[in-house]
Amino acid sequence: MIKLADTRLITGILWSARILGLILLLLFVIFTFGGGMPNPVNLQVNEAFMFLGMFTILTGFLVALKWEGFGGILMIDGFILFMVVEFLSSGSLAVGLIFYLFPLNGLMFLFYWWQNYREKLKK
């Protein structure tokens, strides 16, 4: 049986994931649209795939608001795509801390989903 303290911790992780995801979504929108939305036709192939990775991450966040497990997986998949393209095009990984908050956010949603799934199996 799950204890009240555990329930509060798990709920706190869910809300932390939601708040962090919202902040990251807002930052992405500000940086993308603040400088003018790039024309997808004018993007190089690697830039288009990196944009697809970011789009997958942010779509994963929106999905995770309803389905935490699937959304978390999408966020991590988008991050992997983004980093693979970054590494193949530049020879190094993205160095900014903010890039690593995206998979952390996805892992938080996955952890919440896993805890709920585990409890449902016990019933």
Structure, explained:
It is a single chain. By secondary structure, the chain is mainly α. It has one domain (4-122). It is 81% helix and 0% strand. The chain is built from four helices and no strands. It has helices spanning 4-34, 45-64, 68-90, 97-122. Helix 2 (45-64) packs antiparallel against helix 3 (68-90), helix 2 packs parallel to helix 4 and helix 3 (68-90) runs antiparallel to helix 4.
DSSP E strands, number? 0
| Secondary-structure element series | HHHH
Give start-end ranges of low-pLDDT stretches: none
Percentage beta strand? under 5%
Concise structural overview:
The chain is an all-alpha fold. It has four helices and no strands.
